[in-house]
Amino acid sequence: MSKVLVISGHPDLSHSYTNRVILGELEEAVDHVRVRRLDQRYPDGRIDVAAEQQALLDADILVLQFPFYWYSVPALLKKWIDEVMTFNFAYGPEGDKLKGKPLLLSLTVGGPQESYRTLGYNHFAIPELLKPLEQLAYLTGMVFEPPIWSHGMVYIPGIYNTQELVEARARDHAGRLIATLRTLQQER
């Protein structure tokens, strides 16, 4: 069965109400899944590039799991991408190490769905804002899978949502992600 590598880009997973639930559900339900929590591995931001590249080589499917921060990935995940996806590893004349591997983006979005549309509050739909990561897949020869995201995934006590609501949304999100991963595993 195909091995799934999940890179958790949450900067402080211990304080997450949603990404932590999603990862827990994945680890329980998906065979051959390995989660690398960047916040725990690299609290100082010093990434072990060789170890991360080896984890990518060992995987058949790559998932980037992250909260959507300022229309992109959190800083630690961006640093991971910058340092791990190097010339002649991920791209370039000899950079075919990831070619053909599925890349699946799984993200939690704090704002409501209606705010992410043309001329809405945020002016762009989520797929438009994910174009740089889609291009990363194309440049590295990976297969860009349809991303999975959920809106309203932030809980601010007494102000926005309830913990129970966002955790329920996280379980729903995890269910969709698990179904997609099982399909990808069967196809590979």
Automatic annotation (TrEMBL):
It comes from the Bacteria. Keywords: Oxidoreductase. InterPro entries: Flavodoxin_fold, Flavoprotein-like_sf, KefG/KefF. Residues 2-168 form the Flavodoxin-like fold domain. This is NAD(P)H-dependent oxidoreductase. It comes from Aeromonas sanarellii. The lineage of its organism: Bacteria, Pseudomonadati, Pseudomonadota, Gammaproteobacteria, Aeromonadales.
